Every structure is written in C-alpha cells, then in structure tokens.
Amino acid sequence: MTFDKWFNKQSRLIQIILLLIPFVNWVVEILVRLSALLRKPNLVNALGCVFGIIIPIFGWIDLVWCLLFKHLLLCD
Q1: Which of 13, 25, 28, 52 is 20 to 30 A away from residue 36, measured at CA?
Q2: Cα–Cα distance for residue pair 47/10, rounded to 1 Å
Q3: What residues contact 30, with CB distance under 8 A and at least 6 apart?
C-alpha cells in the first residue's frame, strides 16, 4: 500500500492532526505527494509535489483542503 492511499484511508481526525503539527505536516505532505507522483505520474501530481516542496505555507492550505474534501490539494 502506498503512503498516499494510507493517508486517504485514515479518519479525518488523524489527517488533521498530522497536518496540524508544523514539521510533521511538511514530512507527511512530501511523502504523500511523492507516493502519489510515483503511483500516478501526471501534471496534477507533479505540480502538487513541486508546490509542496518549495512553498512551506502550502501545508496549511492542504489542512483546510483536507477538512473540506478529505484529501490533499493537487494530489490525484
């Protein structure tokens, strides 16, 4: 099982807790995005991976997105 599928199967509470902790947020985001990119290499996953690595504030945007849609922004 890939890390992105594992993350999406977690309860919303676990996802939010992982995304609330600052350094853990960034590590989880990178792992989920790299896993999604390796599993399904497309433009959406590539952009999400680049934005997740380069823009640290993107993790907080993902927190809100995860609250609304139960997955990370730009993670197919």
Answers
A1: 13
A2: 24
A3: 49, 52, 53
CA atoms within 13 A on the CB side of 25: 20
Alpha helix (H) ranges present in 1-76?
Answer: 3-9, 12-20, 22-39, 43-54, 58-69
Is residue 72 within 8 A of residue 33, CB to CB? The reply is: yes
Q: What is the 3-state secondary structure (H, E, C) of 39-57?
A: HCCCHHHHHHHHHHHHCCC
CB atoms within 10 A of CB 32: 26
Read off the pLDDT of residues 37-53 as tens digits, 9 standing for 90 and up: 999 999 999 998 898 88
pTM of the model: 0.85
The two structure tokens encoding residue 60: 């907080």
- Please count the other Cβ atoms lying within 10 Å of the Cβ belonging to residue 69: 9
2 CB-side CA count, 13 A: 14
